[in-house]
Amino acid sequence: MLHPARQTTERDDETLPIGVVRRPLELLADDRGSFTEIFRRSWPIGVEPLQWGLLQSGTGVLRGVHVHPRHDEFILVAAGTMLLGIKDLRPDSPSFGLSALVALSGERPELVTLPQGVAHGFYHATDTSMLLAASHYYDPADDFGCHWADPELGIAWPVRNPELSERDRTAPPLAELMAALARRR
Hints:
With about 180 residues, the chain is mainly beta. It has helices at about 165-170, 175-185, and strands at about 20-25, 25-30, 35, 50-55, 60-65, 75-80, 80-90, 100-105, 110-115, 120-125, 130-135, 145. It is built from 2 helices and 12 strands; from the N terminus they run ββββββββββββαα.
């Protein structure tokens, strides 16, 4: 059974940017294990996947914050727990500037649609495996980022010293990212 999509986080007072949709999935379990249907073309998730990826991260890893001006994604945490930090960077969006922090878990699977122009970062509170699907093939020219701890992001990460890639550790501030995106328009 597919649950209706919702546009709020676990707390009803936190609204997500327009186009970011959480779709809870049903986990069917018995003594042998479990099965969860994760995609149907008929579901209105806003992404027609062309490329799939499997991302595995260890405890304490933070990836991002990244934004893609040309492609949409959806994500699913298959195992472990993760915090998804997001910020709407689309100047024409009614939710422009809105930030949120969303808890996701493999124990309660759900799809999350991330439209183009919504910046996102992943903090892995435990060892985590997640699936990512994208509406376009990966292109480095469509992959921008800013520093995960920039206060202008408005994302209240619960960590001060996460494990980061060199790219994420040295990423520019949000203001530089916004200027780079404006030059692309």
